[in-house]
Amino acid sequence: MQSIEQVKAILADALSLGERAATLAANTRLLGSLPELDSMAVVSVITAIEDHFGIVFEDDDINADVFETVGTLSAVIERKCMQ
Q: Which is a Pfam family this sequence falls into (predicted)?
């Protein structure tokens, strides 16, 4: 998935992960695994994704399944970009 690298960069920036960003992979768990990813950070990440990809997340689009891993988040973004 082409967007995984972009998603990793957005997460690294929005969550201020620093060098830890290099450890992000498609199977990296997000919610519950990254302490930086709290409810306020989710809003920042979504805003950054919307700005970067030119998409809009509706309230119904945002749930724990979307933020399960970097790969699941990337897959949702790719689907939304094709709509």
A: PP-binding
Mean pLDDT of 65-73: 95
Q: Which of 19, 20, 5 is nearest to 53 (CA)?
A: 5
1-82 is classed in which CATH architecture?
Orthogonal Bundle (1.10)
Tokens 């790969």, residue located: 71
Residues with Cβ within 8 Å of residue 61, at least 6 apart in sequence: 76, 80
Tokens for 41?
A: 């950070």
The span from the CA of 45 to the CA of 51, in Å, is: 10
**Confidence (pLDDT) at 3:** 78
